[in-house]
Structures are given as structure tokens and as C-alpha cells.
Design goal:
mainly alpha, two-stranded antiparallel sheet
């Protein structure tokens, strides 16, 4: 099981990509992974001025200097107005800070910049699901899973939201796709088991 994963998958989104929402998928930003967990350490000195703001933000993020990371990612977002990557990194950091409203705003802006970017759509769908905006979340997650059919996190998160909406067959379809791609995914396995139990219960007319 990945660090931070829980067994109550029916009520929690995949923790892999903690994109702001934190899902257990590590986000890849400009070739650098922003993981769901990181080691907080003190920088011996500030990141080199030779680094661009996105890379400086990453350095601050990895050191646990989240306020500085936010500042650098905001600068990167301003100087790269068509690139969703700084906003995804910003959203990840805001999620670590518990600023869910600002996080959702950041991922919305990322999808405006790149409407067909599966990473941005995954982040948006997950954030919306966490905020209780289920129908809009489903649209974004479904689109993400179509654009990136081999994305484990897209299928896991979509399956869990479908399960929460009492559509266990649709949920199981996506959860089984996730398991085909990642057989050791504990979140997907637990949610798939819950989906099968609901399907069996429905077949018995709701009897336990």
C-alpha cells in the first residue's frame, strides 16, 4: 500500500497525486515529481537565482517552505501564461496548506489554459469531488480518463466518485481498469471490493 493510502476507499479519493487534493499519484511538473509526501528539511541557502521560478518553487516545496513555493509558482504562472504546469504545482502547494478554495481556483485556471490536458482535468475533477461538486467532477474525471486511458489515478478517482453516486457497475468498470494497469493499487482493490458487494446486494433486492 502506498504511504498515506486508506482502506475506506468508498469515501476517500485516491491519495496518490495529492494534487492539491492530494491524490496518491505524484504530479509531474516540468519533469519533476511533486509527491504526495515529502521530507521537510531546511535549505542551507536559498535556491539559486539561476533557476527559473518553477524550479525554485519546486526546491522550496521539497524543503517544506510552502509559502515561498507559492510565491515562486505564482511568478511562474504569470510569466508562462499559457502553461498549466505552474498552476498545477501551485494547486498542489495550496492543498498542502489547506487552502481548498484557492486550490480549486488554481486548477480551474489550469484547465482554462489547457482544456484537454488530462493532468489538469484530473486535478479539477478531484478538487471538485472533494468540494462536493459531484456532477462537474464526473465530467472532468471522465474526460481525463478518455484523454489518458492509462492513467491509474483517473480511473481510480472516477470509480470512487461513481461508487459514491451509487453506480457500482460503472465504478467497477473503472476500478478494474485501474487494477489492470496497477495490480498492487490498494485503494483501487478496496473500492472494487466494495463495488462488487453493492452489486451483489442490489441483485438480492437490497437485502444484506
Amino acid at each position: 500500500m502506498r504511504p498515506g493510502a486508506t482502506t475506506n476507499a468508498a469515501t476517500q479519493l485516491s491519495v496518490g497525486y495529492r494534487l492539491a487534493l492530494g491524490l496518491a499519484c505524484a504530479w509531474i511538473v516540468a519533469g519533476v515529481a511533486l509527491g504526495a509526501s515529502y521530507t521537510i528539511r531546511t535549505l542551507d541557502r536559498p535556491p539559486s537565482v539561476d533557476l527559473d521560478p518553477l524550479r525554485r518553487g519546486q526546491a522550496y516545496f521539497e524543503a517544506g517552505e510552502l509559502g515561498e513555493a507559492v510565491r515562486e509558482f505564482e511568478i511562474a504562472a504569470a510569466i508562462l501564461p499559457t502553461d498549466p504546469a505552474p498552476l498545477l504545482a501551485l494547486a498542489t502547494t495550496l492543498g498542502e496548506l489547506g487552502a481548498s478554495g484557492a486550490q480549486l481556483a488554481a486548477v480551474r485556471e489550469a484547465t482554462l489554459r489547457a482544456p484537454d490536458d488530462p493532468r489538469a482535468l484530473l486535478a479539477l475533477g478531484t478538487a471538485l469531488a472533494r468540494a462536493g461538486e459531484t456532477q462537474e467532477a464526473l465530467v472532468a474525471l471522465r474526460r481525463s480518463s478518455v484523454l489518458a486511458p492509462r492513467s491509474v489515478d483517473a480511473h481510480v478517482n472516477l470509480g470512487i466518485v461513481e461508487l459514491q453516486q451509487r453506480r457500482p457497475r460503472k465504478a467497477l468498470e473503472h476500478l478494474e481498469r485501474a487494477l489492470a494497469l496497477d495490480p498492487d493499487n490498494a485503494v483501487a482493490a478496496t473500492a472494487a471490493g466494495q463495488a462488487r458487494m453493492r452489486i451483489e446486494r442490489d441483485a438480492r433486492g437490497g437485502r444484506p
